[in-house]
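Hi all, long-time lurker, first post. I run a small reading group and we've been trying to get comfortable going from sequence to structure in the token notation. Rather than ask abstract questions, I figured I'd post a concrete chain and ask someone more experienced to write out its structure so we can walk through it together at our next meeting. Sequence below, copied exactly:
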Amino acid sequence: MATTADRIRQIIADNLDVGRDPDFDAKLVDSGVSSVDCIAFFKIVNDEFSLGLVAEECRQFETLNQLVQHIDQKAA
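-- Answer (accepted) --
Happy to help. Here is the structure in token form:
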């Protein structure tokens, strides 16, 4: 079974043109991804993991690792 990080990595590969493996410790604002693409990414993550987050809540995640931790805590 794929880990949450693996699933996030695949969503990024399928939907964002970053040209590299994502750094899960880097700040999302430094990723070079446009704000429109970030919003689209969070919508996909919301659907994939049934999170129910609204756009404003997505700003609480500074890194992908913080997002992964949040998803894993919701699943526990």
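A couple of things your group might point at:
The domain at 4-75 is CATH 1.10.1200.10 (Non-ribosomal Peptide Synthetase Peptidyl Carrier Protein; Chain A).
The mean pLDDT is 89.
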